[in-house]
Amino acid sequence: MKHTRKAVAAVIGLVAALSLTACNGDDTASSETPPSSSPAASADKGSESTQDATAGTDANKDDTDTDASTDTGTGTNTKTGICRTDELEVDATDNTTDKTEGVVTVVFKNGGGRDCTIKGFAGVDLTASTGDTLSVNRNGEQPVPGVLKDGESAAFNITFPYNNSGGSGVRITSLVVTPPNETKHVTLDWPAGTLPVTDGESQVKLEISPVGKVSDSPAG
User: Fold this and answer.
1) How open is the CA angle 157-90-210, to the nearest 5 degrees?
2) Distance CA 37, CA 82 (A)
3) Least confident of 47-56, 93-102, 126-135, 137-146
4) Average pLDDT across the chain, whole number
5) Which of 15, 80, 104, 117 is deepest in the core (most CB within 10 A)?
């Protein structure tokens, strides 16, 4: 009998241990977070990704909106269009001061009744009395943008070798000018003297400077 009781007690103890292990295993499984491959976890992760993508799109939109605004120098973010040929009064004046380098100054005066932006180099061609056309190269200076109010002016210089050879030289009859970033041109009378006939070794080059705002030009 004693052996029988001990065997029964051992069996009861083993069953109890197995039951306790099973209960503990159930509790542990129920308290764990669903694996990432489960539908619930995938849905939550997808929702977070969508929110992050939306936030990124909003940030890019803000940057785009900021870049789209142009500061005209007046403290506002409104855009100012370029100065159109039809809005500009164009004039050319001989400003030569010595017998080495000739200078013709071309002035653009804003008469369009609105603010406009001007920047860059004008297109310039000289027409000789022979009918030949001389294109004028840029001098390599960096253009500075400017906003012209109604009545304000911008200008650039054409430098050319002065004809002190004693000969008749090359007589220029007209000056064809196209404002920066425009396609319509204006034809003016050449206001200066002749260009020398050279073999290309002259130290003074036929060049133009970039258009720059005339600081003391009156508005109104």
Assistant:
1) 30
2) 59
3) 47-56
4) 73
5) 104
Nearest CA-CA partner of 157 in 207, 194, 110, 195:
207
Separation between Cα atoms, residue 170 and residue 131, nearest integer Å: 11
- For residue 87, the 8-state DSSP code is G
| Bigger pLDDT: 19 vs 142 | 142
CB within 8 Å of 33: residues ≥ 6 apart: 41
Query: What is the rounded distance in angstroms from the CA atom of residue 143 to the CA atom of residue 31?
Result: 71
Residue 111 near residue 89 (C-beta atoms within 8 A): yes
Distance, in Å, from the CA atom of 98 to the CA atom of 118, rounded to the nearest integer, reads 30
Q: Which CATH superfamily is domain 85-213 in?
A: Immunoglobulins (2.60.40.10)
List the chain domain ranges: 2-68, 85-213
| Long-range own/partner contacts, residues 201-205 (CB < 8 A, 24 or more apart) | 202/161, 203/161, 204/100, 204/101, 204/102, 204/159, 204/160, 204/161, 204/162, 205/137, 205/139, 205/159, 205/161
pTM, 2 dp: 0.62
Radius of gyration (C-alpha) of the chain in whole angstroms: 41
pLDDT at 186 over 50: yes
Q: Which residues 6+ apart lie within 8 Å of 91 measured at CB?
A: 106, 107, 109, 188
With the C-alpha atoms ordered 71, 72, 74, 79, is the resulting torsion angle positive or negative? negative
More confident residue, 195 or 8: 195
